[in-house]
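Hi all, a correction to my earlier message: I attached the wrong file for Enoyl reductase (ER) domain-containing protein. Here's the right sequence:
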Amino acid sequence: MDGKSSSNTAGKPIRCRAVIARKPREPLVIEEVIVAAPKPREVRIKIICTSLCHSDINYWKLERSPAIFPRILGHEAIGVVESVGEGVHEVVEGDTVIPMFLPDCGECADCLSKKSNLCSKYPFHCTPWVGRDETSRFTDMNGETLYHFLFVSSFSEYTVVEVARVIKVDPAIPANRGCLLSCGVSTGVGAAWKAANVETGTTVAIFGLGAIGLAVAEGARLCGAKRIIGVDVNQDKFEIGKKFGVTDFVNPRNIGDKTVSQVIIEMTDGGADYCFECVGLTSLVHEAYAASRKGWGKTVILGVDQPEAMLTLSSFEVLHSGKSIMGSLFGGLKPKSDIPVLIKRCMDKELQLDAFVTHEVEFEDINKAFDLLLQGKSIRCVIWMKE
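and the right structure:
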């Protein structure tokens, strides 16, 4: 089935419900919206469930560019293909799919290489549009344009996504677990598995035990790390972290005059083999780099700081320490080949997705999901759409 669909709604606009962020920091509102038919190389998806990520919160709070309103947020989801646009042959109506913010075209030099997951045909940037043509597929009932978020906009009963950002997955995966693999959990697990290539018996230090940091711990555990040190100002995160393999804990507020890097160097007799910055603070990147072992220590940056934030590293130290530092978007994962591997590991009971889901709510209660995350009470809250 190439660009065809047997559904009664194929090729027609769909009227459905969506959650709209109309102004920064104000409660989201559920409204009826119009979702246009998919254009060539696009897929319209009926969302089954979605989960809330800190990136949704950050953009909801943001009052300057790249903020834009009104907008349909959401980018962690799983759904079923309702119809496809012209030229789509990768998926057909009825397929279970996970939409992705990161593309995987399978054609460019980067996508064909094992060394990169940064597609050059569809470069990642924070656009408010569905894709390259800079148009929206959403309008409200007054005809006003509603902007997209990270190419997914899953806080809608239906959404339109480029096929390069759609992964066909095993329908046996529970929807309230599969949706987690769109962003945070995959990013953290992938950072340990792919970006850092953590080895058996090594020592890992994780700066920030939010969802991504905990996912790094889970990934490091799966890779066979001997020691996983969690760093967080919330003491409760140690008990939570133990579920994901965290063996040691450092609270920066409880170490006196010492720096976190000094404590980790003492704990590990020289520094951690792998350090991960999962908060998005340059000060923590510096601490993570300082805490990594000379000769082979690797620091992986996962947190998102302000665009103008700058790192200042001593050229002398970089040269003489032999350590490395790298950024890792989506944990270095190539979506269309690596996400199915994570799904299999989940189905085989190796990857512990259950532990990440602390709350589940109905679509109508999405503001409760925001409150739980803002209060630090949830790791991931799954939001169910009604049939």
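Sorry for the mix-up. Residues 211-223 form the longest helix (13 residues).
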